[in-house]
Design brief:
The protein is mostly helical. 70% of the residues lie in helices and 0% in strands. It has one helix and no strands. The N and C termini lie far apart (37 Å).
Length: 43
């Protein structure tokens, strides 16, 4: 059960990080929509 619990936590942390990054990029883009050129890709 420890392995399953660790795997579950790993997935949860990954989802939280991905969600946080997407939200941060979304807010940043929304606040600076006029300053970001079309086709801007930080990655």
């Amino acid at each position: 059960m420890n392995r399953q619990h660790k795997i579950s936590q790993g997935v949860d942390y990954t989802v939280i990080w991905l969600y946080a990054i997407l939200v941060a990029i979304g807010i940043f883009s929304w606040l600076n929509i006029e300053q970001i050129p079309i086709g801007f890709n930080p990655f």
